[in-house]
Amino acid sequence: MFDFQYAIEIFPTILSALRITISATIVGFILAFVLGLVLAMLSRTKVKTIATITNGVIKFIRNTPLLVQLYFIFYVFPSFGLTLSPFVAGVLGLGIHYSTYLSEVFRSGIDAVPVGQWEVGKALNFTQKQTWTRIILPQAVPPIVPVIGNYFITMFKETPLLSAITLVEILQQAKILGANSFSYVEPITIVGILFFVLSYPASLLIKQLENKLNKKYQV
């Protein structure tokens, strides 16, 4: 039976751990966004060695589980003299893993920019940096914003994996409460509701944004 009184008592404790979940998601996503853009640009470079290595790294990370990568960062890195806190290790794992997916999203957006736009940069005597920042990226990023937003939500829902490296986010907090009270129904239910309450409205906002951008760019 679901004990509402017990659920009310433990709700503030679980809610306090939500800050860790949200912080890990935001910081990890910022890392994934920046690193994903860098990977997308490196994969398109004319230097074949760099492009080959970059594409190899992307494929390797995408085809290995996030959980394994988290374990490696948190438990194996110390063997090489690099000990990270659970939060830093979790953010690093999320950021690196999802950067490989965002790199493909960025690459598709960049490929969608008409070839003539690159010629415009040459005609204006822009440097390569100016061409990227003033012509290519302003056209490549807006149409892919909805896809990027969906990955943000997905990353948020993946944060329970961080409990595997002892980070006390909301799921880990629910496990601790369940172990202390021998009642897991209430804390796990609360965690599920919190994820739904935060994820569903965000998905609706992204859908609205996608509809607006589709009309603007006639996608």
Automatic annotation (TrEMBL):
Gene3D superfamilies to which the protein is assigned, alphabetical: MetI-like
UniProt keywords, alphabetically: Amino-acid transport, Cell membrane, Membrane, Transmembrane, Transmembrane helix, Transport
InterPro entries: AA_ABC_transptr_permease_3TM (IPR010065), ArtM/GltK/GlnP/TcyL/YhdX-like (IPR043429), Ectoine_EhuD (IPR014341), MetI-like (IPR000515), MetI-like_sf (IPR035906)
One CC-aspect GO term: ATP-binding cassette (ABC) transporter complex
Residue ranges of every copy of the ABC transmembrane type-1 domain listed in the record: 18-206
Chief location: membrane
Mode of membrane association: Multi-pass membrane protein
Molecular-function annotations in GO: transmembrane transporter activity
Protein's UniProt keywords contain Transmembrane: yes
Membrane-traversing stretches: 20-42, 72-98, 188-206
Subcellular location: Cell membrane
GO biological process: amino acid transport
NCBIfam families: ectoine_ehuD (TIGR03003), HEQRo_perm_3TM (TIGR01726)
Entry similarity comment: Belongs to the binding-protein-dependent transport system permease family.
The name this protein goes by in its record: Amino acid ABC transporter membrane protein 2, PAAT family
Species assigned in the record: Desemzia incerta
Lineage: Bacteria, Bacillati, Bacillota, Bacilli, Lactobacillales
